[in-house]
Amino acid sequence: MVITTVADTITRSVGAVTGTLSAPFTDPVIRLGVTGLSRAGKTVFITSLVANLLNRRRMPQLQAAASGRIQTVYLQPQPDDTVPRFDYENHLAALTAKQPFWPEGTQRISELRLSLKVQPSGFFSGLQGPRTVHLDIVDYPGEWLLDLSLLDKDFATWSAETLERMPTRPAADAFVAELGACDAAKGFEEPQAQALASTFTAHLNAAREAGFSDCTPGRFLLPGDLEGSPVLTFAPLPLIEKPARKSLWREFERRFESYKRNVVRPFFRDHFAKIDRQIVLVDVLGAIHAGPQAVEDMRRSMGDILGAFRPGRNSFLSQLLQGRRVDKILFAATKADHLHHQQHPQLTAITQALLRDAQDRAEFSGATTKAMSIAALRTTVEDTRNHNGASLGVVRGQLLNTDKQAAFYPGALPSDPAHLLGPARSGAENWLDADYEVMSFAPAPLTLKPGDGPPHIRLDRAAQFLLGDKL
To answer: Entry's Pfam families (predicted)?
Structure first.
């Protein structure tokens, strides 16, 4: 374990030195990580961002675009031949079809390179020609990000934490019954291991569907080619003092360590540790709808995983000595188009408060963080309705999987985030004084003029924060 850690550190350091020394002689590269938990909208965000950088008329808050300094933007092959390409063209085709539909969500890591030809700004800009800036967008599942917190835990600690929170989550009874029928101190049998792993995986999927965020190990939810392998065939077990060498407990402990060594650590070393800028997409409205426990689980999850970003400013010395660090992190509450703009400030304030622990930890380490409410693709229009003599701001759009239009009001978000976070921290099961609803909208048919990207809410502001200083 120590040798592996040292080797990983040397590899990152050599890569950082090479990148630092060659940087003055090569085109600058920004590696933007895009992640978020399930259904937060990663695929749509990347597709809309790329489309709006290629056609920049809807990007007035991106200063380099508004000033005309971005002369052209084009797609080209990504530098890493071993990583699947983000399927931008097919995703855009889904969103812009005559009858548009949502593209498939993120199931694995993928990458896409955009090259921007930019005229420099500043006093001597007239004496310089345009330069090329490469934007490498790295898309990866948020479930994999949560796994990074496992690197600092042993099997006993992870098992205790998982079993402790299980009673408050759905579909736990089947796993608890399966666990009660076995003796982890006795000899290992593969059919028993598979039964435990299967019911535990079903519990994780049910918890995710119910709006919970921390559902580790993440590859149990998105197994890919590892499905059915021993590295994904384990489950949490109650602590046993001095378990026998060939017991079920010992074998699960071994597989847990193998999962960290063969699944989590390579992802960190090969992809995650090379990111410069990061956006974390968060379905705050979905968590609020799911209830106080889901909100508290999201708050804890985002605080726990932020340490994996190793945040800090990308100075020459820090790259040389420590490797790359994320120096800007944007927490974006998605689906802002599900709210009338009158409630956007409340959504942003709740996101800031929800992620305060995570933000403070990043800023203490030198990274710049920001919270924002966005919609990468706007699917609704705003309207007003009279309700009990008052004017109510609603949004109107086509319901998913139907041809019906509906006006929607999710409930009044509080102006003071403590009214939500207080009950969440105290373990309340329901919101006492309000109900919050969510509705699934289909993407609206688009008629785009030349130069127009897809309609959005604050995507240009997000791009300015993440990329503006590099352009």
So the answer is: DUF463 (PF04317)
